[in-house]
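Ticket 4471: requesting a sanity check on a complex prediction with magnesium ion. Repro inputs:
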Amino acid sequence: MLEVLRRIVQEVSSATDLGDALRVVVARIREAMSTEVCSVYLYDSESKRYLLMATEGLKADAVGKVSLTSSQGLVGLVGSRAEPINIDNAPSHPKFHFLSETGEDPFMSFLGVPIIHNKRLMGVLVVQQRDSRQFDASEESLLVTMSAQLAGVIAHAEATGNILDLPSSEAPEPQNKPRKSARFNGAPGAPGVGLGTAYVLNPAADLSSVVDRSIEDPAEELEKFEQALESSRAEIRRLGEQLSNELSPEEMALFDVYLNMLNDNALGVEVRNRIQEGQWAQGALRQVIMQYVGHFQKMEDAYLRERATDITDLGTRILAHLQGEAGNQFDDVEMIEDCILVSEELTPGMLGEVPTSKLRGLVSVKGSSNSHVAILARAMGIPTVMGVVDLPHNQLDGREVIVDGYRGVLISRPSAELREHYQEIYDEECALQADLEVLRDEPAETLDGHRIPLWVNTGLLTDALRSLERGAEGVGLYRTEVPFMMRDRFPSEREQQQIYRQQLEMFAPSPVTMRTLDIGGDKALTYFPIEEANPFLGWRGIRVTLDHPEIFLVQIRAMMKASEGLNNLRIMLPMICSVMEVDEALHLIYRAHSEVLEEGFDIDMPEVGVMIEVPSAVFQIRELALRVDFLSVGSNDLTQYLLAVDRNNPRVADLYQTFHPAVLTALKTIADEARAVGKPVSVCGELAGNPLGCVLLMAMGYDMLSMNATNLPKVKSILRGITRDWAEKLLNQVMQIESAEIIASMIHLSLEKEGFGRIIGPGGRG
Ligand code: PEP
Ligand code: MG
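Returned structure tokens:
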């Protein structure tokens, strides 16, 4: 049975379209189960009907024509019960519905199983037989297994817009019916919406198609390779320069990573060796690049797997020069307008292909919000969708598309209504941002005089610049791992000192909260691989740096030295689970302080705080608070750990509920406990910048909120338009409610009633 199943699955996955896949399924199942009929009925949720889409055994001309309502027949019963129905005398069943067009009257036995994908009914798979008999358990399990496979295939076809059009009634469809817009889901890479034309970038040359070839004259091939290498270096430098106005020196370091990969001691040596051994330059290059890529792809860690992309990009560039095809992919960049750059695998280098003034959005089939290109896109403010796995990207070139970077969605061939809808969001976003600019120098103070400072989260230099423009009063979270991720080795104490000095100087005299290195989980460094089965429950944050005091001490010393004369540094510890970790970290921080004093620096001991982002910390707030100067809630991780939902896994994304009552109870407990021991407490997770969330957090008594610069003006506008009393009443109401959805819609409605529809509506989405 397993073998049969394996063969069918293989055949189905190589089918060219949905119709083809369905035909394969019905034919093979009928054969494998030695039955007389196998059919697939697909469910159309709009018309609420089942349509016969493929059959072996019933009349072929009934396909695409015969349909049943959702409550009709045994098929309707299987669908509504969402479980298999296995009977030996179908015609005698009260639900039996006779369809003369299919010629099914002589069939007695019926086994139908629902086809369900992500809780959604997609259709019913049926086998029938002339004799009266009950299908046995193994036949039933084969059909259930097959239907689970089929559900994935149908969902994929639907996602790629390939689903066969189902009639909305039994009336024939008009021939010229416009096709629906196709919607593809990915992950939000950078917020915002962009409307424009898709420009598909393909790698200029295809490494995998290069063949091996023996050569007589290695010297000639070596010469070609050197020239290609030199041209690639020049090209990467040129791309880097094109982006230099957009990126800070630290972000530009990414291009140095590329250039370093090209240096003589790395890739080059291995390629030259193979050329010396008699392989032509292209073959030698392919062998070496593939070996590196294979090595990186095998890594468990998502960040390290991303590095395979950088290497492929690099190898492809060199190959293009070897093949004499390099150069800009677009013939006339001047002609490009409103460009949505689409690629199977976007790389940082590709961003340089089109001037940023013309870029409206970015889309990548592969990659995640952790990819370098997403980090750069966020810094540059370009709406981006990553990991759109179902996207037939090669068919998109020249098509009108919309990028929704808030939701991680790409829409191709938008209908007039959708286009209008998104254009409104875009215009509204621009207008809203412009209107909110007047609040820049106004305090975040409620109508009844309660002041709550709004700080920002930063990582790149660009974030810091935008934060200042938007009136940030300090930095509540500087993610120090970001500059570490843009390099190919640990930055030295001196380099770190320079990076940190920039941040501290930009915001002085306002405080800057620097979080110690928070790597592990989904954030790894190419040069410090961490391979684990459960990275979010593994070697993360403070656990790594306490095990490597040399890394921790260098970082703390660099932060302290950078703050000399400014004294606006605050140090924050991530992923704290127990008081021992705080004691150990404090011991190292005091040691670093005395070391820098010994070196002659004149620096006050900075304030030290801990992040509350693990459930155990919630239950030890007092013990933790008594050891440090402040607390800050990492609501992103706290939600992930309280609800046991991986924050990066799209499969369980709908279970990651920001307003889950358990999360709100934990947040309230933290605020109450911190107040009881007199320690300031803030929130620096996404919830703080959520226009709905900020109201509850203010009401809970949080002393400060830290968020991304984009949302700061919206949050300020809301807080300035309500009273604390009103927010407290709303909080009391929502704390009585058991459902996250109801809580969210209740806050939404309340804010709408207060006149904040524009901020929290589509144009004001967080
Ligand atoms: C958090 O977990 O809420 C947080 C602010 O940290 P990060 O998102 O960097 O893990
Ligand atoms: Mg965190």
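Notes from triage: The two ends are 50 Å apart (CA to CA). Leaving this open until the requester confirms.
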